[in-house]
Amino acid sequence: MEEESNKKRKGCTVKECQYMIQRSLRTPMVKFLMEHMEKAGCKLGDNFIKAVHCEQQMGGSYVRGDGIMVCSNHMKLQDDVNQVVIHELIHAYDECRAANLDWSNCAHHVCSEIRAGHLSGDCHYKRELLRGFMKIRGHEQECVRRRVMKSMASNPFCSETAAKDAMEAVWDICYNDTKPFDRAP
């Protein structure tokens, strides 16, 4: 019976997710991003990345002052948690390196979303295939654009039109900004 209820459950418990977060902290990409945040002068406390139960349909979020929240009820696999942690760490890194980043400014927010989508591996063709999206050419940029717009829908300061306009205005600069990586991983 317990096995059956686990199949129906959408994600994992906060405790299970917290364990997966601890495991993700040992992955090379997460370690790399955290080291570069420290080098940039941003201290990450022990509770910077935490598992929470989320009402919204999202994998996680980065909130200035609160750190990274991973939505346990939307996580099933270690890979899901790793992906969310990496994506949100890129937002945290962006805020760390840009003293004037304003999340209510559509261009600022869009730029960080472009970078997070491009650099985190969110749009790797295998992930896209599992989501039911597949094109031979141009799938990665199309995916980043789609996911930017999905993320921007939760920003009350940016209408869909403002988000699209901002994305077009900053696309080249932000897509090609691969810091702290030498090139897109």
Structure, described:
With 185 residues, this protein is mostly helical. It has eight helices and three strands; from the N terminus they run αααβββααααα. It has a three-stranded mixed sheet. Strand 2 and strand 3 form a beta hairpin. Helix 5 (106-119) packs across helix 8. The longest helix has 20 residues, at 78-97. The chain starts with a helix and ends in a 10-residue tail after the last helix. Residues 1-7 have low confidence and may be disordered.
Secondary structure layout plus pairing:
Elements: H1 2-8, H2 14-24, H3 28-39, E1 49-52, E2 60-63, E3 67-71, H4 78-97, H5 106-119, H6 125-131, H7 139-152, H8 160-175
Parallel strand pairs: 1-3
Antiparallel strand pairs: 2-3
Helix pairs in contact: 2-4, 3-4, 4-5, 5-7, 5-8, 7-8
InterPro entries: Peptidase_M76_ATP23
Pfam family, one: Peptidase_M76
EC number: 3.4.24.-
The helix/strand series, from N terminus to C terminus, equals HHHEEEHHHHH
Q: Give the structural class.
A: mainly alpha
β-sheet strand percentage: 5-15%
The amount of helix comes to 40-55%
What's the helix count?
8
Could you give the order of strands across the largest sheet? 1-3-2
Major sheet summary line: 3 strands, mixed
> What general outline do the C-alpha atoms trace?
globular
Instruction: Note the gap between the termini.
Output: 43 Å
The average pLDDT is: 89
| Number of β-strand runs | 3
Radius of gyration: 16 Å
Spans where pLDDT lies below 50 across 5 or more residues: 1-7
